[in-house]
Amino acid sequence: MERPRIRPTFALPLSGEADEVMEVMKSRLKDGQFRDCTRSRGRCADFYVPEEERRVWAPCLSVQVEERDRGSLLRGRFGPHPEIWTFFMFLYGAVGFAVVMGLMLGFVQWQSEMEPWGLWGVWVGIPGLALLYGISAVGQKLSAHQMDALKERMEELAEGLVEEGTDAEHA
Predict the structure, then answer these.
(1) What are the φ and ψ backbone dihedral angles of 92, each rounded to 5 degrees?
(2) Rounded distance, CA 161 to CA 103, Å?
(3) Which helix (H) or strand (E) holds 89?
(4) Which terminus of the chain has a lower count of CB atoms within 10 Å, N or C?
């Protein structure tokens, strides 16, 4: 069983130039059935789960096409919606700050031969970080089918643009 990764990624080699590939994909988006849950600008595109299927843990797929020596490379990254990701980063930062401050305060108290009660920040913060990681793993598990659907949608758009004999790889 694969260990859950925070914001899983993949790379897909494409045969055309980056700007040409994005133009083809944008034209397919305009004609396709998913234009309501996809945004693109420049060489970037975001794929979303349809509104009626969206939950707090629903994923978003961000892709970017970049130049290579021969052809281009599409990089995709799964993650929560930006507002959820920002909230999680705030929580990670707050808990990390509590751990660092608890360590510093506890060390100063210990050096001053006082009761090092500041170390409680560490004993509470480390399980807090583990809890946040666990929540993200549960969210990935609950949305695995939606991640597969988003990747399939992106692969449909890139059909005929992928280099022969290659397959998506984890980056």
Answers:
(1) -60, -45
(2) 53
(3) helix 82-111
(4) N
| Other beta carbons within 10 Å of 138 | 12
Give the count of beta carbons closer than 10 Å to the beta carbon of residue 147: 17
Burial of 149 (0-12, 13-18, 19+ CB in 10 A): middle
Look up tokens 């990701």; give the residue.
85
Q: 63 has which bridge partners?
A: 45, 76
Q: How far apart are CA 142 and CA 136, in angstroms?
A: 10
Q: What is the pLDDT along the chain (171 residues), one digit of tens a residue?
A: 466 677 788 888 888 888 888 888 888 877 766 667 788 788 888 888 888 888 888 899 999 999 988 888 999 999 888 888 899 999 999 999 999 999 999 999 999 999 999 999 999 999 999 999 899 889 888 888 898 888 888 888 888 888 766 555 555
Here the tokens at position 51 are 């509104």
**Residue found by looking up tokens 């998913």 in the block:** 34
Supply the DSSP symbol for 156.
Answer: H
